[in-house]
């Protein structure tokens, strides 16, 4: 998204501006069901298809606009998330997210694959893009074996799912004990003691939030 904005003449480079770009991505981007068809529509309409150009109000109250051409956020809305399915668009020789999902499932035991295909859970801010789940479902269906039942779950709190899961796990009374035992069985005692020193509980954090930076820097 930053690169696309830069090509349009707008530069976002500071950490605060990158947060603005992230917000724009999550609020305005959408995943095209058929990227080739989407590209043709934009070309045929002269880059201004009806209902697909939006404006975004920046934190300072200004609106993003392109000089003499109306509102800025147009084709950037679908081109940015498209790299998740086709990383080669930005020169990366990686598989798309749909291919990664299918490959990961196919590496498991045959008995597990049916269950895994039926329990794909979306997580992370990029999955908030409109149409992401539908496009992923379509692409996975195309790659999976015929008649495989595929189900994708998109929890509303998926932007923070990783943090929520981590906090639940860390909050268990047995987590610290089990973690230390596991490490004692696999690494030397001195390393286990180092892990112990890196532990931060909620009371420590409330007393001094910077403790995380000091312990893990």
Would you write up a description of this structure?
It is built from 12 helices and 4 strands; from the N terminus they run H-H-H-E-E-H-H-H-E-H-E-H-H-H-H-H. The protein has 217 residues and is mostly helical. The strands form 2 sheets. The chain has a two-stranded antiparallel sheet. Strands 3-4 form a two-stranded parallel ribbon. Helix 5 packs across helix 7. The longest helix has 14 residues, at 15-28.
List keywords for this structure.
two-stranded parallel ribbon; 4% strand; mainly alpha; two-stranded antiparallel sheet; flat; 217 residues
Radius of gyration: 22 Å
Give the rounded overall mean pLDDT.
Answer: 77
User: What order do the SSEs take from the amino end to the carboxyl end, as H and E?
Assistant: HHHEEHHHEHEHHHHH
What is the straight-line distance between the termini?
Answer: 30 Å
User: What characteristic shape results from the CA principal axes?
Assistant: flat
Count of alpha/pi helices:
12
**Percent of residues in helical segments?**
40-55%
Beta-strand residue percentage: under 5%
Number of separate strands: 4
